[in-house]
Structure formats: structure tokens, C-alpha cells
Amino acid sequence: MRDWPLWEVFVRSRRGLSHVHVGSLHAPDAEMALRNARDLYTRRQEGVSLWVVPAAEIVASSPDEADAFFDPAADKIYRHPTFYDVPEGVEHL
Amino acid sequence: MVGVYGNDFTAPDETAPRPATGDEPETFRALLEGEGRVEPRDDLPDAYRRTLVRQIAQHAHSEIIGMQPEGNWISRAPSLRRKAILMAKVQDEAGHGLYLYAAAETLGVDRADLLDQLHSGRQKYSSIFNYPTLTWADVGAIGWLVDGAAIVNQVPLCRCSYGPYARAMIRVCKEESFHQRQGFEILHTLSHGTPAQKAMAQDAVDRYWWPSLMMFGPPDDDSPNSAQSMAWGIKRFSNDDLRQRFVDMTVPQAEALGLTLPDPEIRWNDERGHYDFGEVDFTELFEVIKGNGPCNAERMAHRVRAHEDGAWVREAANAYADKQAARAGADVA
Amino acid sequence: MTDSHAGYVLGLADDALISAQRMGWWISRAPQLEEDVALANIGLDQLGQARTLLAHAGALEGDGRSEDDLAYLRDERDFRNVKLVERPQTDFAVTMARLLVFATWQAELYAALAGSTDATLAGVAGKAVKEVAYHVDHARQWVLRLGDGTDESHRRMQAAVDAEWPFVEELFRPVDPALVAAGVAADPTVLRAAVLRRVGQVLDEATLSVPDVAPAVAGGRDGLHTEHLGFLLAEMQHLTRSHPEASW
Q1: Structure pTM?
Q2: pLDDT for B39-79, tens place per residue?
Q3: Is B173 on the interface with A (CB under 8 A)?
Q4: Is A27 part of any domain?
Q5: Which helix (H) or strand (E) holds B266?
Q6: Complex-level ipTM
Q7: Residue B214: which pLDDT band, with cuts at 50, 70 and 90?
Q8: What is the C-alpha separation between C134 and C103, in angstroms, rounded?
Q9: Residue A19 lies inside a defined structural domain of this protein
Q10: Which residues face B267 on adjacent strands?
């Protein structure tokens, strides 16, 4: 017999915040996955909203590609406000 | 054999996976040296992966087998308040098992396979759960001593090198803190209650003290896997260090409870800055690990029966999901 | 009316208490670990309802009996729960069939009692109505999956509904008309139509049929129970009763 598929669970802890990955669980389908997530991951009032996603549907970047993906951003320091000199006395900039 | 929740150790005549050394990927070495976290898709040495799967699975198994000794008392809890607390606690143990199986699954194994290995006896769980809960006070002793020892073991695991395990442990530790307190509260109430209640509490502590010390594993000289686990950042402190920490923490608490610990050699050592305590006799532990403990057969039979009795339910849910998917497909077409 | 008022609340309290006691059995025995957690949540909700209702019944009685006095120190004949909830439930289909009926009844009941003239009862009901809505949903999800799953699960689910059905009618036995007239209690005949309609819809969707069976002889509200209740209470009460001087 095949095991129930794996689902990844995301919880919004309170209004105004994003959903954050909290863990995973097994469920036969989406409806039960949502309910299991409620029972397992919000029983101490950890959330006000839930997402469940089939683990198999997640597309992830690979650590092998990490250099090519993420390193080129490292030298674009002009994207950060601290790169710029502001003359003394100038405010609200 | 795993100490509850973390320490990985075996009886002397059992074999543990022996790590190959020397051929660890450069990226992995660099992560460990920088105290960085290893994540699932990193290039992991096979021995590291196997050691983690084994340890996390045994930890998860311990949580779900651990539901039984306390679950025994849900129907008999002596007040409705205690009943509610105990139900919530045993429920937490199921939850902790689930968090941990999920962490193991990030290493490329399936929970169903891990459960099969538990059910067939190829993977173990903590020996402490092979002791019976004979009286209500045992529920208190498990919370205070067994969960107390578990916390000492688990807190360092929150900084374990493997990210998913460390994150699961943070969640477990947060929830675990109420477990120890409720155990202490049970014993405190008993030890300040009737003479019969106090005797019940003392008896439970007498029976659970030494097995709790055994949860930290054999002495360091006799713990062959510890060095490798420490090098890999899975284990942070030695068995003996953690055991000492637990004793130091627990002796004053026992005094506050008005109960004695069954070891005449316990006394404060000013020079060491620690409590001295008697030598743990591991002969019994190794017998329990080998399957000769008081409840090994019952715990396994209970677990296997639940799994087998539920097979038709799990299968029905799959069949229903397939039908629903087919119906949705037919609607689209 | 005070006696019948206290008795009414006590009956609802006992339903929740005995149901929670049976639900607790499942923890460590469910078909999947996720379900251990779910059933524990349901049992905890029921136990919470039982505790506030018992305390309220004790207060109405005016004899100073606490929730624990009422739970642990009454004998079989003094319990007022319906027989639906007291029989063993070691088959998952039975548990779900019973939960579907019981929680749907509680959902209708508590919705009505949220407007009770008994302010405490209204408060308890207002909180519990959200809890039991989730229980109804959980039972519904499982009855659908088992009824419309495999041949075996369909057979077992239908057998479970058949076994529970004779005990459904007792839920709708008349209560003291004075309590209904005073706006304290909900009228069972009104609840009956809504409960049977909702349960019937779920059974129908689950490809199950509503059994055509005669109701079992009622009596739980008068303390006339099945033989199972005595064993349940013996287990639940023995420790507390063995130490009459103790507090826990």
C-alpha cells in the first residue's frame, strides 16, 4: 500500500505577517492536509492562516548552483542606501 | 540504542554504522568548520546521512512509543484537570514524533519505511519506555525525571549541525517545557498530600531515578560513536557531561519536593563544583535494550496493532483521493 | 425547576465527559499519527466542555459539589449521559459514525443554547459551538472517505452507522417543558429535524444509507445505562475513590 503523500505546511502567525514554513505532514489529499496542519501546527495558537503544498510540487534551487545564483549579487553594493555619501546636514534622504 | 531523544548508543554487542572518514566533500567540511548549518540538498557524506537518519528515526520512535506508558493513565487520571493535562501531553508526544519523522524525511527516507523498521525491530526506541507505569506517581516521575533528562539532551540538539533536525528540536523544546513542570507539580502535590500519596511519589522516584541516568548513554570511555557525532556537530556534549548536568539540576529539585533520590553517594563536592553520585549499573540497561525489559513486548505489540488495525483506513483515504482526482479530471475533460 | 435545570445541565456535561473518556482511548492507537493528534484535540474540547458544564451543574445544585466530585464520586445510576456515547468504540468507523451524530447534535444544541436565558450555559455554548463545528467537519471528512473509499471501508462504515443508529433517537427525548418555556433548554424536537437532515446529507454523499432500525430503549437520562458504563466508571474513578482524603 502506498503511503499518504507528504505536504509542506506554512503558517501565518498573525495578520500582517507572511506565511512561514513550519514543517511537514502526511495526508491523503489537500482537504485532510489542511486539517492535519491545523491540528498539528496551530494547537498553541501559532497561526491565523495556513497553506499546505504537496512537497513534490516544490521546485528548489540547488546548492550546486548557489554560486551562480547568488554570488553575482554580492558586488552590486550600489543597490543599498549605505553606498551613498550624504552631505552633512541633509535630512529626510 | 538511542537515549531518549538524542544520544545514540548501542549495547556493546550491537553494531552501529561505522563512519567512513577522509572522503568528506569540501563544502561539507567548510560548513561544519564555520559552524554553519547543513541543509537537505547539500552534498552530504553518506555516513553523516546514515547516522542522522538512524538517530532522528530512533528519536521519533521514542516519542511515539513514549505515548504508551503515560497514555495508560489517561483513562484513570485522578482529576479532570490532570486528565486534560495528560491528554495534551501525550498528544504533544505524537506531535514531536511527527516533527522528527518529517526531519528524517528530508534525508531521503520515507516515514512508512522508518515505521516498518520500528515494527520489525530493526530500529529501536529509548529503553526508558520499556519500564511500566505502575502508579499515578509514575506519570509525575516521567515528567520530572524522564522529560527532565530529555531536555538536558535536547537543548544542545537545537544547535545540531543538520538544519531540519535543529529546527524540529527548537519546536520540541519549546513545547517540552510544560511537560517537566507538570510532572514536578504532580510529585509536589503527592509529596505534600496524604502519607499514601507521599509513599507513592517516593516509590516512583526510586524506580525511575537510575533508568533516567541511563538515558544519557554509557560512560564516555565506552561510547564508541560519540567522538564522530561530536566532530560532525550532531552531538555537542559528552554523555558524562550531560549526566552530570542533569544530576546537578535535579538534586536541589528533589529537596524541594521533599523526596529522596535512591543513591546514598549523592553529595555536594565543593572541589568539583558538582554533585558526586554513585556509579550507574548499565547491566540492566543492556538487558532492556536487548529486549528483555519489563514491557518491550507489550510496547511493540501495541504499536504494531495500531498500525495494522489502521491499514484499511489509510487505504480507504487513498482510494477516495484517487476517485476525487478522477472525478476532477472528468469534469475538466 | 432548579432540580430539573441542574439535571439538564448535568446530562449535557455527562455526554461530553463520557465521550471524552472514550476518545482518550484512541491516543496512541489511531490509524495514522496525524489522527492521534486530531482525536486528542477533539477529546480535549469535549473534556473542556464537560468541566465547565459539571461545575455549572454543581453550582445549580447548590450542594457544593465540584466538577471532580460529580465526575468521580457518582455511581452508574447517577450518570445522566445518553447511551450513544458510553459504549466502547475501538473501531475507527464506529468512532466516526458516532462523532458525526454526536457532534452534529451538539452543534445544533449549542447554537440554540447560545441564546439560553441561563447566562452561564449560554456562555459555555457560545464557545463550544466553534469547537463542535470542527468535530462535525472532521467526522464528515472521514465518513466520506470511508463510505466512498474501498469496498471494505464502505462495508465497515455502513456497519458502524447501522450499529450506532438505534442510539440516535435518545438524543431527542423530551426535556422538562418548563425549562424550554423558560428559555433555559433547547427544544429537542426542533433539534431533531436539523440533526437528522444534516447527518442524512453526509451519509448520502458518502454513498451510505440511513438505517431503517427501531430505536433502542432510552434511559440514559434517567440513569438506566448499558452494562458498559459501569466498567468505564470503574476505570475512571478507581484511583480517586481509593484515596478519599486526597487531593491531586
Answers
A1: 0.94
A2: 998 989 999 999 999 999 999 999 999 999 999 999 999 99
A3: no
A4: yes
A5: none
A6: 0.97
A7: very high
A8: 9
A9: yes
A10: B276
